[in-house]
Write a structure and sequence with these properties.
Immunoglobulin-like, cleavage on pair of basic residues, mainly beta, calcium, calcium ion binding, metal-binding, four-stranded mixed β-sheet
């Protein structure tokens, strides 16, 4: 850098500032030459902006304004091309035509694409020819050979090169790999491994059993190798079928109908395998199917007997004679040896043993009488067993229908009871009856009704046959009176239309009843005749209910009055605990002066007569007792209480409830029992209180008191 100023006597110094000043670029402050002190990389930074200025050497004052300039780094070819996404994988269908696009690849070059040819790339294939080619500039890879076969070679490895400098010498290059896989197309037909298959099968094999497998191989894979199997010809198309196994890609031959060695010993089938998915592009390669012959040999087996019919239907009249033949079943051994057959009845199906069968010829006979009215159908099972091999058995169902004969006389359909109103009119229908017959004639039932010969001219009733096979009973006159005759019995003869016809006599009971004006029956009893006409049955029931209610109220009232009048004085033979009066209050202890006069205990001398009770006045006449003699003030309270207790026990007028107010009840379940003196009123006063001494120190004093009382009584 040089300034345009005339320096004169001043000395000029150059200074540099900006990007990389002092680190990458350095200026000679005397000459103004700029040097790069480090290697430059255009790919790292392509240009630098710097500012230069001329200043006075001594004072550093600017001699001219600063000048800005840009240093651009010129590119050189120092970066090779790179495939950032490699290695690559691609697929292309087999049998593709020439020039089919496979894929394209891309390489990048860090050099400047504008300056020179450092970033101009050219693509080429190093390995993979002659199967594939690549466009030099676009890097599109195409097939170079037509009809490449996947079955011959499935995978190809292609090495691709990208070279800069337009591919000229001296340029840098980079490589990558491309793996090309040929995908399958259906270009191969199925082919059986052998043209003839042999299978053998026993004649007694179960239907649906797999007899054998055939397989047509296909070089294709996946769905292109799927084949369907069919039987297209042969003498066993009706007996056999073939199904396709999608997993194993083979055909399974199964039995559709039973085989019989004695009828046919071998079968020949023609089996075809055809591709399911056919590509029309390759239809010219021929039919995508193949055929094979299957020969099946039937092996003999010991078979069970075969009945002439799968089911049998027999009919027999219900009046058939015992041991008469009602039908026959037949069976044979289908084997060549033809073993004799024995017949029997499965008794689980004939628990009542109503039928027998001849073991040799299969004739079924009647063992017990039949009754169609009890059971119309009998279902039994006949067993046929080979005599030479008892394990070979067969069963056949036999349905036996019992035919009807006219062996039941008709009778009333139910128990009828007719009601006749006293105020009925002549010709009025009293009752309509119908008949029933347990038999079942083919043309249905038709009944004939008649009265007994001696009842034809009876003056009271007549009969009339209806169109619905029922019978109406009519009254000949009015004025029936239940006081004269309450019940009439009318015998009726019922005959059927069977061959021969049967008949029976049923009696209809007719009751004479009192009815309302509109014919509603009210009472049929003779006693009810004396009741007022205006009272209905509901009114009578209401009156009776009121009477019963009044009686119950009277009984309860009398019971309550008796309970209130019971005396409060308890007799000697009663349990005092049943008559305890509960006041539901608690005693006040020593401060309670209302329950008991404490003065009596404090001053026994003042007691000369009797003190009136404060609670309840006794009903018995009280006899004054002679007072005790005066005792000194130092009287023993224990002795005083014992004396009073003795007097109370022997005084019949002393009520036992003087202390009930305080000690009325001590509770249930007490181990100690009751301590009340109320039980002292019992006639037997020989109570033993020795057990009190065993209750511990708390009851020691109480035991001594009662012991003293007992000793006094004994003395």
């Amino acid at each position: 850098l040089h300034t345009d100023l005339d320096p004169g006597s001043k000395k000029i110094k150059y200074i540099l500032s900006g990007d990389g000043a002092g680190t990458i670029f350095q200026i000679n402050d005397v000459t103004g030459d700029i040097h790069a002190i480090k290697r430059l990389d255009r790919e790292e930074k392509a240009e630098y902006t710097l500012t230069a200025q001329a200043v006075d050497w001594e004072t550093n004052k600017p001699l001219e304004p600063p000048s800005e300039f840009i240093i651009k780094v010129q590119d050189i070819n120092d970066n090779a091309p790179e495939f950032l996404n490699g290695p690559y994988h691609a697929t292309v269908p087999e049998m593709s035509i020439l020039g089919t696009s496979v894929t394209n690849v891309t390489a990048t070059d860090a050099d400047d694409p504008v300056y020179g040819n450092s970033a101009k790339l050219v693509y080429s294939i190093l390995e993979g020819q002659p199967y594939f080619s690549i466009e030099p500039e676009t890097a599109v890879i195409k097939t170079a050979l037509p009809n490449m076969d996947r079955e011959a070679k499935e995978e190809y490895l292609v090495v691709i090169q990208a070279k800069d400098m337009g591919g000229h010498s001296g340029g840098l290059s980079g490589t990558t790999t491309l793996t090309v896989t040929l995908t399958d197309v259906n270009d191969n037909p199925p082919k059986f491994a052998q043209s003839l298959y042999h299978f053998s099968v026993p004649e007694d094999v179960v239907l649906g059993t797999a007899i054998g497998r055939v397989k047509a191989n296909d070089q294709d894979i996946g769905e292109n190798a799927q084949s369907s199997y069919d039987i297209i010809d042969g003498d066993g198309t009706a007996l056999f079928e073939i199904t396709s196994d999608a997993q194993a890609q083979d055909g399974i031959i199964r039995l559709r109908k039973p085989l019989d060695f004695e009828t046919k010993k071998s079968y020949t089938l023609k089996v075809e395998a055809a591709n399911v998915h056919i590509d029309p592009r390759f239809s010219g390669r021929g039919p995508f199917k193949d055929t094979a012959t299957v020969k099946i040999v039937v092996e003999d087996a010991d078979e069970p007997p075969v009945f002439s019919s799968p089911t049998y239907l027999l009919e027999v009249h219900e009046n058939a004679a015992l041991n008469s033949v009602i039908g026959q079943v037949t069976a044979r051994d289908p084997d060549i040896t033809s073993s004799p057959i024995r017949f029997s009845i499965d008794r689980h199906t004939d628990l009542e043993r109503q039928f027998n069968i001849n073991a040799d010829d299969g004739k079924i006979t009647l063992a017990t009488p039949l009754d169609r009215e009890l059971s119309v159908w009998h279902n039994i099972t006949i067993i046929a067993t080979e005599i030479r091999n008892h394990s070979q058995i067969s069963r056949v169902p036999v349905a036996i229908k019992v035919l009807d004969v006219n062996d039941n006389a008709p009778e009333f359909a139910s128990e009828y009871e007719a009601f006749l109103c006293e105020n009925g009119k002549p010709g009025q229908v009293i009752q309509t009856v119908s008949a029933m017959d347990k038999d079942d004639p083919k043309n249905g039932h038709y009944f004939l009704y008649s009265l007994l010969p001696e009842m034809i001219n009876n003056p009271n009733f007549t009969i009339k046959k209806n169109e619905d096979n029922s019978l109406s009973i009519l009254a000949k006159h009015n004025g029936f009176n239940r006081q004269k005759q309450e019940v009439y019995l009318l015998p009726i003869i019922i005959s059927d239309s069977g061959s021969p016809p049967l008949s029976s006599t049923s009696t209809l009971t007719i009751r004479v009843c009192g009815c309302s004006n509109d014919g509603v029956v009210q009472s049929c009893n003779v006693e009810a005749y004396v009741l007022p006409i205006g009272l209905s049955m509901g009114a009578l029931i209401a009156i009776l209910a009121c009477i019963i209610l009044l009686l119950v109220i009277v009984v309860l009232f009398v019971t309550l009055r008796r309970h209130k009048n019971e005396p409060l004085i308890i007799k000697d033979d009663e349990d005092v605990r049943e008559n305890i009066i509960r006041y539901d209050d608690e005693g006040g202890g020593e401060e309670d002066t209302e329950a008991f006069d404490i003065a009596t205990l404090q001053n026994p001398d003042g007691i000369n007569g009797f003190l009136p009770r404060k609670d309840i006045k006794p009903d018995l006449q009280f006899m004054p007792r002679q007072g005790l003699a005066p005792v000194p003030n130092g009287v023993d309270v224990d002795e005083f209480i014992n004396v009073r207790l003795h007097e109370a026990d022997n005084d019949p007028t002393a009520p036992p409830y003087d202390s009930i107010q305080i000690y009325g009840y001590e509770g249930r379940g007490s181990v100690a029992g009751s301590l009340s003196s109320l039980e002292s009123t019992t006639s037997d006063s020989d109570q033993n209180f020795d057990y009190l001494s065993d209750w511990g120190p708390r009851f020691k004093r109480l035991g001594e008191l009662y012991s003293v009382g007992e000793s006094d009584k004994e003395t």
